[in-house]
Write a structure and sequence with these properties.
alpha+beta; 721 residues; six-stranded mixed β-sheet
Length: 721
């Protein structure tokens, strides 16, 4: 129409009504929404500016840890040489400490408006028109939260309780209310333990809360003292739908499907066999999945499962007196007992738990390797994998210790309340499988996967159970502590991401390829349903799903860490949907997923295991035999199984392979390469941020500038749920 129109960005937030009118909501230039609160940044800046030692300020919301939005305050001290022009690097000028600033702001502002971090600058960076250039404000020192002056003690009884639980589980003392759960070494499995322990104190949390509110100060207002949870407290019986992971196992039609277990060996002293049998009976009654039974249709080969009500009066504990066995023969005797125990399961008759109490006697001799000969008692507990996973073990052994202590005093155990039953979870998954939410994930899982094979030392070897061998390596306690706390804090990452980065680099160096297809195991207890709590439910919940890791083996691992994080962040619902669609979904999804190449590498991070178990003993040395947990008769479906765990104060890595395919030296080199990458990340995390390379600093937040919009959305969803 010949008229020049000018469009201005006003900074007003509006919404369009049904009649087309625009309704004013508020200003967005200085107003942000954080943790559900609308916050005026200018109000915080005004209060900071009133501090006598501050000449200039700016406050912004940063997201240096994906999904972990937090307020960051930037201050220029009054004795700085300039308040307007200068560099934007940290200085050594005298300025109030973080603790002083938080205390000062707490006098006039609510907790949610107090910045989580502060950065001291010589000057605030400016744009050409003289405004503060917020994009140029640097990331805070990622190690700032570990400094003494940033520790803020709990203020309320609830915060004291939460901090005590964190300290107990993470082994960190003290825990401040602004310490990040994941930066202290927490992970998804530890978060489930935290939920279970909070429940004992009458506090109800969910995994969603922990991932969204990652500090004590943030999560305390979200804690509920009452929760509406679907949890039957009496024995649950009847038919149970097969879950995806159970179908994954049963479809393999192994020649000895009754012999596929998980087992733990405990060092004990003075346990009474009858008292132990009664305590084991208590936990089998309490935890429904231990009473599962299986039937197979001889015509179709289809399996069904149901929960029985009866607990056998005998057979749960077998006792063995090995006091007369010579020291040299003791390992072989324990091996025979372990094998016999683990081979004794009957899927039809049950139960799915067996145990052996071995009395070794008092011994003082040492073995050929210089280690002491085992003495005292050993308690072997084996459970068929259809009924247990790594999270379940923590619940089962804790309850067994409590039950034994009560029975020893002549009391009937009062175990904590049950959470959502395995039967109810199976029903909910089946309904979820045909939902729009599950269907929306199919496009991701259907993406093409590389079908590369791993190099073989022996091309014609058979990957069978009887050829399996394991290489064990570990970090020392000091390195383990740095891996659990320094690496997550320095690079805004998690232990799982660091481990997978190390594996991608090591395998890439071995194969000469950037892209590696792995099968990744997750705990599977995802927060899918509002009325569900699985923190104390025993059963097999594991999710197994394919992941393609893309990392340049020639690059510095620090450079790859953020890229691997972005790749993992794209995984919907932490991978649980893959099995749901493959085994429970509509008929058009399973064939597509079944036709994809099967990963030759399987990776499982089991989290942290405490060294001692109150009331029952402690974990035995990994070198002591537990017997074979799986039948040697039949095929192995992965060429390489990589399992990581923190046992006590040591991070251990187990690489299981077939000696018919690979020489042990090959796998030992691969294990050493994985540890070398982890040590590189530990070394980089220990450097002063100013001394790191620009690429190193990219992993602290700026690397996400090159991430696509879809990947960035996935990262935010993964960390903030």
């Amino acid at each position: 129409d010949g008229v020049t129109h000018h469009v201005y960005r006003t900074g007003d937030l509006v919404k369009r009504r049904a009649n087309g009118e625009l309704e004013f909501v508020g200003r967005i230039d200085d107003q942000v929404k954080l943790r559900g609160y609308r916050i005026e940044l200018g109000e915080i800046e005004s209060q900071l500016q009133a501090h006598p030692q501050i000449a200039a300020v700016s406050v912004i919301v940063r997201q240096d840890t994906p999904g972990d939005k937090r307020l960051v305050g930037y201050i220029v001290p009054t004795d700085s040489t300039s308040t307007r022009i200068g560099t934007n690097t940290n200085t050594n000028t005298t300025s109030p400490s973080t603790k002083d600033l938080r205390t000062f702001l707490a006098l006039t502002l609510p907790e949610y408006m107090v910045p989580a971090a502060f950065v001291t600058l010589e000057a605030l960076p400016l744009t050409p028109n003289g405004k503060v250039d917020r994009k140029a404000l640097p990331a805070p020192d990622p190690r700032e939260r570990g400094r003494d002056d940033t520790y803020t003690p709990p203020r309320t009884e609830l915060e004291h309780t939460l901090a005590a639980i964190w300290s107990e589980i993470l082994g960190v003392t003290p825990v401040g209310i602004h310490d990040n759960f994941f930066h202290l070494g927490g992970d998804s499995i530890v978060s489930i333990q935290m939920i279970a322990r909070a429940k004992k104190r009458g506090l109800h949390l969910t995994p969603r809360m922990i991932f969204k509110y990652q500090t004590v100060a943030e999560i305390a207002p979200q804690v509920r003292t009452e929760a509406v949870i679907d949890a039957e407290q009496g024995p649950v019986t009847g038919d149970v739908l097969l879950t995806p992971i159970q179908q994954w196992f049963l479809e393999k039609r192994l020649p000895a499907q009754h012999h596929f277990n998980q087992a733990e060996l405990l060092v004990t002293e003075g346990l009474d066999a009858d008292t132990l049998a009664a305590a084991i009976g208590d936990v089998v009654t309490h935890h429904d999945a231990l009473r599962l039974r299986y039937r197979r249709d001889t015509a179709t080969g289809a399996w069904t499962q149901h929960l029985g009500a009866a607990v056998p009066a005998t057979g749960l504990v077998q006792t063995h007196d090995l006091t007369a066995v010579p020291d040299a023969d003791l390992p072989a005797a324990m091996q025979r007992i372990g094998d016999a125990t683990q081979q004794s399961f009957d899927l039809t008759a049950g139960p799915l738990l067996r145990s052996a109490l071995m009395n070794l006697g008092t011994r003082s001799a040492t073995q050929d390797d210089g280690d002491p000969t085992p003495s005292g008692q050993r308690l072997l507990i084996a459970v068929h994998h259809l009924a247990i996973d790594s999270v379940s073990w923590r619940v089962l052994l804790e309850d067994l210790g409590a039950a034994y202590a009560a029975r020893a005093l002549g009391q009937v155990p009062a175990l904590p309340d049950k959470t959502t039953s395995f039967k109810a979870w199976a029903d909910k998954l089946a309904a979820h499988a045909v939902s729009d939410r599950a269907r929306a994930e199919f496009a991701y899982w259907a993406e093409p996967k590389p079908g590369h094979r791993l190099p073989r030392d022996h091309a014609d070897g058979a990957n069978t159970g009887d050829s399996a061998d394991t290489v064990r390596v570990s970090l020392d306690p000091q390195e383990t502590g740095a891996l659990l706390r320094d690496v997550p804090r320095a690079f805004a990452t998690r232990i799982n991401d660091a481990l997978l980065t190390a594996i991608a680099h090591a395998v890439g160096g071995w194969t000469g390829r950037r892209r590696t297809l792995i099968g990744l195991e997750g705990h599977g207890r995802e927060d899918l349903f509002a009325d569900t709590d699985l923190s104390r439910t025993v059963g097999w919940f594991t999710s197994v799903f394919p992941v393609v890791l893309d990392a340049d083996p020639a690059a510095d691992p620090v450079d790859s860490l953020a890229a691997v994080q972005a790749q993992l962040a794209r995984i919907p619902d932490n991978g649980v949907g893959y099995g749901v669609l493959r085994y429970l979904g509509a008929g058009d999804t399973a064939p597509v997923l079944q036709a994809q190449p099967y990963p030759e590498i399987n990776v499982n991070y089991l989290g942290r295991f405490a060294e001692t178990l109150p009331g029952i003993g402690r974990y035995a040395d990994p070198a002591e035999s537990r017997g074979r947990s799986a039948s040697p008769h039949g095929p192995r479906w992965n060429v390489l199984d990589v399992t990581g765990a923190v046992e006590g104060d040591v991070f251990r890595l187990y690489l299981t392979f077939s000696a018919a395919l690979h020489d042990r030296a090959t796998v030992e080199r691969l294990a050493a390469d994985i540890l070398a990458v982890l040590r590189r990340l530990i070394e980089a995390a220990a450097q002063d941020p100013a001394e790191r390379t620009r690429a190193d600093r990219a992993t602290e937040g700026t690397a996400l500038t090159d991430v696509s919009d879809s990947d960035l959305a996935a990262i935010l969803k993964r960390f903030s749920v």
